[in-house]
């Protein structure tokens, strides 16, 4: 296949959890269908492995065609199927080609994937793949300039960029002399799924090792193995991506994905399941023994600070910070110390932290406003706003203004009430994973 030929294929219309041939061939853009409501069309095939088989989605129900109806009607027919979705993606690819005629096929594919609208679960998912094709973003020259490699400057271990677990990064690596370094913090022992994709005519290798650099790679991918899952102990890791072919002369645009494999057994029908699973994929939460998350239960102050600290990418400290009821050796002490050092928490006037006390919605708001470094203040749209104390109201208002928190259907906030684990997961996912606002770089 020519390095300039972009091949697009329909995913298939059998409602199967895999892509039909030739959509499943590496290097081909597979296209599934969505209906007019934005949901995956009931007939459309999809992939249970969106990290391994990246695909896009596009409208595929009641699509207006150029096939005339009867002479009397004087109109055009509509059609449904992934074969009506694929031409939309082909057309967007052609627009990109017309604006950037020197792009290789993989550069065009990369731009379509990188500019797609994320739908469903954050990052790749089986229903929508990488996302819904977005023609306007795909041809935006400012986006092209930014996406050539937003991670450039990471060619040495000490300049490693933080890798967002649970998501993918798109970047480029030149033949052999270029190196891309990333890093991630794993807070608990868990399986890690790592995969990468790049054009069939390009070769690269991926190595995961301990941040200390000792002991050799703990996980390695190469042209013969592009996806692997392996259980790793907690700790700091760094990831190296480099070209594997000295004869390779073209630009190496790649997509690298990694997530923590955590199976939670009690969220499948919960309203907050997407946010909870996103935090699990990112290695922020793992639930209780037995795989339960208990989404409707309250969360203790120790659990909350640990979750926020991990979402922000803080390194747990080996010492305590003066709370009378937090002892070195407590499972949460390292994260409480890190959060206190960062200025996220202060504790109570009596010198306690009260780690086992459920956190309230007011307290949650104050801590998150500090983590997100928000400008405090604003209006409060709640019927019970007078019941929100002065020490919490500015933080609540700031979070409301950003769309991170909302009230209940009866238009109350209930700030003194206990924040549920699902509510906290939703807010943290919106700010720390979706918007990447609280991430320590």
UniProtKB/TrEMBL annotation:
Origin superkingdom: Bacteria
Taxonomy of origin reads: Bacteria, Bacillati, Bacillota, Clostridia, Eubacteriales
Location of the SLH domain? 259-318, 319-382, 383-441
Q: Would the keyword Protease turn up in this protein's UniProt record?
A: yes
Recorded protein name is: S-layer homology domain-containing protein
User: Gene3D superfamilies annotated for this entry?
Assistant: 2.60.120.380, Peptidase S8/S53 domain
Keywords linked to the UniProt accession: Hydrolase, Protease, Repeat, Serine protease
Family that this chain belongs to? Belongs to the peptidase S8 family.
One Pfam family per UniProt: Peptidase_S8
């Amino acid at each position: 296949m020519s390095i300039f030929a972009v091949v697009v294929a329909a995913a298939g219309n059998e409602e199967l959890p895999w892509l039909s041939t030739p959509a499943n061939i590496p290097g081909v853009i597979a296209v599934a269908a969505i209906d007019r409501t934005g949901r995956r069309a009931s007939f459309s095939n999809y992939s249970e492995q969106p990290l391994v088989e990246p695909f896009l989605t596009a409208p595929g129900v009641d699509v207006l065609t150029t096939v005339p109806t009867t002479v009397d009607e004087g109109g055009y027919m509509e059609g449904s199927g992934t074969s009506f979705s694929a031409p939309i993606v082909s057309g967007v690819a052609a627009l990109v080609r017309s604006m950037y005629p020197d792009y290789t096929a993989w550069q065009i594919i990369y731009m379509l994937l990188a500019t797609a609208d994320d739908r469903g679960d954050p990052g790749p998912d089986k229903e929508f793949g990488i996302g819904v094709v977005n023609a306007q973003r795909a041809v935006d020259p400012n986006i092209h300039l930014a996406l050539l490699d937003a991670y450039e400057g990471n060619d040495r271990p000490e300049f490693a960029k933080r890798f967002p677990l649970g998501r993918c990064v798109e970047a480029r690596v030149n033949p052999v002399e270029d190196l891309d370094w990333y890093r991630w913090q794993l807070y608990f022992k868990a399986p890690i799924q790592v995969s990468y994709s790049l054009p069939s005519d390009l070769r690269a290798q991926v190595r995961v090792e301990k941040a200390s650099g000792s002991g050799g790679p703990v996980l390695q991918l190469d042209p013969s193995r592009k996806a692997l899952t392996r259980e790793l102990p907690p700790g700091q890791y760094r990831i190296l991506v480099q070209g594997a072919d000295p004869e390779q002369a073209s630009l190496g645009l790649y997509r690298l994905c990694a997530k923590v494999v955590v199976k939670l057994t009690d969220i499948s029908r919960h309203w907050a399941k997407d946010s909870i699973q996103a935090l699990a994929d990112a290695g922020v939460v793992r639930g209780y023994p037995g795989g339960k998350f208990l989404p409707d239960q309250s969360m203790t102050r120790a659990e909350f600070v640990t979750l926020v600290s991990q979402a922000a990418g803080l390194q747990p400290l080996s010492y305590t910070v003066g709370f009378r009821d937090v002892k070195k050796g407590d499972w949460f002490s390292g994260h409480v110390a890190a959060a206190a050092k960062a200025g996220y928490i202060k504790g109570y006037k009596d010198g306690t932290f009260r780690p086992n006390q459920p956190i309230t919605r007011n307290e949650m708001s104050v801590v998150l406003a500090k983590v997100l470094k928000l400008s405090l203040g604003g209006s409060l749209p709640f019927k019970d706003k007078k019941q929100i104390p002065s020490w919490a109201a500015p933080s609540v208002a700031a979070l409301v203004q950003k769309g991170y928190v909302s009230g209940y259907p009866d238009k109350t906030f209930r700030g003194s009430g206990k924040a549920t684990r699902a509510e906290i997961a939703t807010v943290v996912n919106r700010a720390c994973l979706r918007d990447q606002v609280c991430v320590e770089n």
